[in-house]
Amino acid sequence: MTTYPAAKIGFISLGCPKATVDSERILTQLRAQGYELGADYQSADVVVVNTCGFIDAAIEESLTTIGEALRENGRVIVTGCLGAQGELVKNTHPQVLAVTGPDALSEVIAAIHEVAPPRPDPFVDLLPPGGLKLTPRHYAYIKIAEGCNQKCSFCIIPQMRGELRSRGIGEVLNEAEQLVSAGVRELLIVAQDTAAYGVDTRYRLDFWQGKPLKTRIKELATHLGTLPAWTRLHYIYPYPHVDQLVELMAEGVILPYLDVPLQHANRAILKAMRRPADSENMLERITKWRSICPDLIIRSTFIVGFPGETEVEFNELLHFLERAQLDRVGAFAYSPVSGAAANALPGAVSEAVKQERLAAFMAVQSDISADRLARRVGQQLPVLIDEINDDHLIARSYGEAPEIDGVIVVPLEDGIEGVTVGDFIEIKLTHSDEHDLFGEIIWGDEA
């Protein structure tokens, strides 16, 4: 029987966890068709770059990466968020073979077929359950919806990815079930607007295991919680029904970890951003969430230096941080995004002032984060092992999301044998620093 050498695809993935999910879908499809995959430019038949285009820095990184791939290989296909700005890509790099946008699986696969047709091998290995993954095999991102109905003035996701389009709850739960069967121990649920899941379908009925279920976030979280794996929710817009999710966290159904991007605290700046609420409203909600679920970890992101932000508005944001006592926080200096409504707003802040405010913001939050971590010292809790090194483990608890939060460092001890990455172990937190926690293994007679 004749066999054929597999076509080689160089694949580069940039951007956020949502882009990682898109990359894994593309890679799974390519692997199933017999392609050989890797990150090597020179030996590949074609290089695919899955880009990010959310802020200027991401656009610059994507364009630079495309340029490197063109220099090293010469045959490049561009996909992902920056692909929605095809004219920009083509003007910058006219040599690219094809440009497809985000959430365009069939289009990018067709473009690859045009350049490097699949060469079927009857002896190709079957894919493991759950497909091909960029992330470690013990955790996985599941994208439950595409697009967004929000009209935030600093964001162009609706232009790039369209309006909200929720997957059926049965489809999502089937994927989760397959991933857990393949050894995944933590499911990270993502979308551009995760808490809006199902709104676009009017919470249509779908089926899982023969049971009718409503396509909405509470039902999804409830049923994900029946699987033998952790469930962590990301990108939760602060709708009123988030209180119901916090109740599920208090009951142990899903991890008590709330990733809720707040962006600012001043009412006028939030209005200019087209974001909800204000500092007093959010402080009341945070207090309520913590009363419902005392172990709750709250993560958020903020933008400093937004157009119109004066020292008064910025100081209000710092005051909010001190009162809110958030556990994990990321911050960005405002960066104009081509096509965003915020570009036309008056009161631009100079780059120097943006950077000064960003440094001041992170200094305040670093002290808060260090204090919040110190309060957890003494806890006994299960952790998930991410790495095993010569003399220590790197692990995470319910309070640490992979790739964006700190970690827990646990010294390896004599007598602990047979543990592998992806195992759960019981530890006691012994001390902390500004970003990370440290712990020790609890043996059976100590638990």
TrEMBL record:
Chain residues that bind [4Fe-4S] cluster 2: C148, C152, C155
The keyword Iron belongs to this UniProt entry's keyword annotation: yes
One record GO biological process: tRNA modification
Molecular function (Gene Ontology), one example: 4 iron, 4 sulfur cluster binding
Keyword tags: 4Fe-4S, Cytoplasm, Iron, Iron-sulfur, Metal-binding, Ribonucleoprotein, Ribosomal protein, S-adenosyl-L-methionine, Transferase
EC number: 2.8.4.4
CDD domains documented for this protein: Radical_SAM
Catalytic activity reported: L-aspartate(89)-[ribosomal protein uS12]-hydrogen + (sulfur carrier)-SH + AH2 + 2 S-adenosyl-L-methionine = 3-methylsulfanyl-L-aspartate(89)-[ribosomal protein uS12]-hydrogen + (sulfur carrier)-H + 5'-deoxyadenosine + L-methionine + A + S-adenosyl-L-homocysteine + 2 H(+)
Pfam families listed in its UniProt record: Radical_SAM, TRAM_2, UPF0004
Role this protein plays: Catalyzes the methylthiolation of an aspartic acid residue of ribosomal protein uS12.
InterPro entries xref list: Elp3/MiaA/NifB-like_rSAM (IPR006638), Methylthiotransferase (IPR005839), Methylthiotransferase_CS (IPR020612), Methylthiotransferase_N (IPR013848), Methylthiotransferase_N_sf (IPR038135), NA-bd_OB-fold (IPR012340), Ribosomal_uS12_MeSTrfase_RimO (IPR005840), rSAM (IPR007197)
Residue stretches making up the Radical SAM core domain: 134-371
Name by which UniProt lists this protein: Ribosomal protein uS12 methylthiotransferase RimO
GO CC terms in record: cytosol; ribosome
Domain MTTase N-terminal, chain residue ranges per copy: 7-117
Localization per Swiss-Prot or TrEMBL: Cytoplasm
PROSITE patterns assigned to the protein according to its UniProt record, in alphabetical order: MTTASE_N, MTTASE_RADICAL, RADICAL_SAM, TRAM
Domain of life: Bacteria
Cofactors demanded by this protein: [4Fe-4S] cluster
Domain called TRAM: residue spans: 374-443
Details of cofactor binding: Binds 2 [4Fe-4S] clusters. One cluster is coordinated with 3 cysteines and an exchangeable S-adenosyl-L-methionine.
